[in-house]
Amino acid sequence: MADKLMSTMHEKDMQKVTAMQKVTKILVQFLLYAFLIVMALIIVFPFYWMIISSLKNTAEYRLPVPTLFPQEIMWGNYLEAFTAANLGKLFMNTVYVGIVSTILSLVVTVLSAFAFARLEFKGKNALFAALLATMMIPGELFTITNYVTVTKFGWLDSYTVLIVPFLVSVFYIYLLRQNFLQIPNELYLAAKVDGTTDLKYLWKVMIPLSLPNLISITILKMMGAWNSYVWPRLVTSTDDYRLITNGLRDAFTDMSGQANIPVQMAAVTVVSIPLFLVFIFLRKYIMKGVSRSGIKG
Amino acid sequence: MKNFLQKIKFDQWKAWIYLLPAVVLLLIFTVWPIFNTLRMAFWNGYGLFKELGGELTFEFGIKNFKWVVGYGGFITCLKNTMLLTVLTVPISTILALVIAVCLNAIKPFQRFLQTIFFLPYVTNSIAIGMVFEAMFNIVGFGTTMPSYGIINNILGVFGMDPVNWINAGSSYWANIAVLTVYIVWNALPFKILILLGGLQSVNKQYYDAAKIDSTPRLRVFTKITVPLLSPMIAYVVITGFIGGFKEYSSIVGIFGDDMQAVGGESLNTMVGYIYKQLGANHEGDASAAALILFAIIFVVTMINMYVSKKKTHY
Q: Which of A67, A187, A278, B41 is deepest in the core (most CB within 10 A)?
């Protein structure tokens, strides 16, 4: 009898405890979501502000209490941004530089990664270690001399100066070499026995097997061209060769001489949208590349 | 046998053919700069004499370093950079850790929120810097009916008086505050990505054991989560420090190339200083400053690695 009483009491206690646990759990979940949603709103707010500001007219933009949605949508701001900052030309420049430098960079990277992963030659490990060591050095240290060098070469104001100095990335070689090393050597030897040439083997076997990494490199390289600012500003002086980010800091002023911020925001939106599109469609590759490299662009 | 040796020899030069483009480019744009930067840095008055039309004296010494540190305004840039790094790295790391832990604890909408938190990563730092400029900017400054900008309006809801964040006459600390907000906003996605990746690979058994012992949540966080995540935390802190010391484009984004509205020089960073000297054809001083920057990054990274080796649990 006593035993039974004890056990029912125990059960009741247990039920109470689980009920308590449930309430706490719901409360904790609620707080988690509340916190995350507030943080997400803070993260997204600048993008929202960018887009709605780009659609306002200057009078509305200058209201003492800003409106959260444009009263009259001004698509014309975008047209003005394109003409004022010459965005069309800068856009074409950036696409050209991005595509050419990505293709050339992929060729150089694949060839050297193959040499480091599959071929035997004297001093291979020493050379590879030396390459990795250069990754420690901040890029600015190279920029100074490279600026002097390209000036001596007479490359200022050309597409060459925007493409060639950055073709080799030690990090990409490293990334791809690791990938190549994972492909079993037996495959290579078998291909050799069959009389397949190295280049054919590279093209038919290694490149298809390391496609995800090659896509990551392509995206990061294109984003690099899209976001580069300091180097083009240093080595180009006309819109013929400047890249899109350089056009952003141009003065967008209206007739009264004040900065026309809505038009400026339209230009900023134009630069940001392709990045969003790339992100939405190729998110997997970007995140993979990023978590391995820790570098931007 | 002879055939085999020939084959090896052939392999030797074949490898170098594959490496040729990379090696040539690296020699010109990576190896030569290392030597040349050292040469220019220790070549007294390199650049300055050339600009004045004078002959270069072949005199090596530390004159450039002395000038950079003593008169060149480098110390101000160093202080600004250090301040921004010391402020932004801890704030962004802790905030990213909290967000990552919260994200890891929810199920519905986890991927959606994760995507939102990654958004600032795929942006152009100059472009979004200009958006932050617009948000903090006071339009019609000095007139009777100024628009104080959206941030001041939001702060006004909480009863704060409008602050002059970035316009002419704004205080140094207001500028630093704006930069800190922007840099943290920009640094969060990478850190969240790495830390969340770490959390998701943590063995669930540790948490189950803690649950059986009904360990309080905070204790689970400090005694299980943080130690198990310590390699990832060390990684984001080290990359954060390196990125912090190279900070430049966020400042250009918000304040423009010359930072005119806020007194130009006073807000510059080390990288900005290097580019300024380079733009003025003072290659010697730019090189000296770049070497100092490299030395600082090297030392800080070594200290970080030493500390993290002692503190991380693998």
A: B41
